[in-house]
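Here is one such tokenized protein:
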Amino acid sequence: MHGPAIGYDDALTLALEAALAAPCPTETIRLEQAAGRWLRAPVRLEGALPPFDHAAMDGYAVRSADLPVSETETRRLRVLGHAWPGRPASCAVGPGEAIRIATGAPLPAGADQVVERERARTEDPAASTVELRAARAPGRHIRRAGEEAQPGRCVLAAGLRLGPEQLALAAAAGASRLTVARRCAVAVLSTGDELVAPWQRPEPHEVRDSNSALLQALLAGVGVRPVALGRARDRLPAVRAAAEAAFATGCRVLVSTAGASVGTRDHVPEAARALGFEPVWRSVAMKPGHPVALWRADTRLWFALPGNPVAAAVCARTLLLPALETQLAGCARPPGWCAARLGEALRPRGGRTWFRHARLAVGADGVLAVERLLPHGSARLTSAAAANAIVRIDGPQEAGDLVPALPFGPLGPSAIPAAYEASGASP
């Protein structure tokens, strides 16, 4: 027996602690290689951002003292020339003068205001004068050097995942090389005598292995390198040999499905102990996913997920992926729960934390809402495939209550097949 189940929150805390004790090693790579990687050293500005005073609008760089107090009046100024991004003006702005300026061009000396071109009475590029209808407003339409950030400031903190906007900021900061987490190898193993490959035609007593595809996709999405071990029979030597091979080839984490409970053909616990692993926890008071287990040996982790695909998906998203993100980030990365409004009352039973696949959408009032709870069951893949979130349910809930939701797909209405229309029995 593996003793009483621990609560979900306690299981998550222990998983993150185990992951923090075994962070992924780091490497330094070029900026253009870093999309989707996890930053492990902060990025600081080499210079000010922006680096110089420049125009925030197309128009005319002027001395505000040359403009009237009221916008109902106009002033005619002599145009000295042009200023473009990368081609600053060659002269300063003096009394009664202006320089045509493009957005992003350095502000000419002497100017302290930019008048947008829409306020020019005559917009002839060849004209030597321009009549402007604009009020005096020093600093208008000018971005000052350093107004966004000063030199040396940390603009990207360690522990975040690098997307397009973060890479753009790193480039602006002058960070041509970034220190990131290595894409650690994570092994995936499905166990069970009933499993065959997806391309095989199963016998009446067999099923196709869907967990391998599920987990490899989830692992790739979080930024690690999945290593497919295939399928192991329900035999202790087979399970142990597969695990030994995974860790011998450099995998830091093994993720297996099925075989983790207390049945006579559940060999993961014995195989884990034989390889020197100790349990972090053996079961969790959650549904689906009760038999999920975590084993640890030094810096190696073994997540043993349930064999039922939906239960495996729930455990992966709520326990496995946060732990892997923590290893990659080098800091705790709990699930990104948000609040969503329930559309129906729920009465969970059994004293566990319940998780349901659901469709989330933004309601007419702008509040995130549970559009539909999908039919549930540990092996009901059709519901999981139609979902864009997992909803957490702790105790009785009324319609209109806010509950934690974990989005993982685009929000909004979806063409859910008619077979999924009913919400199914409440927990």
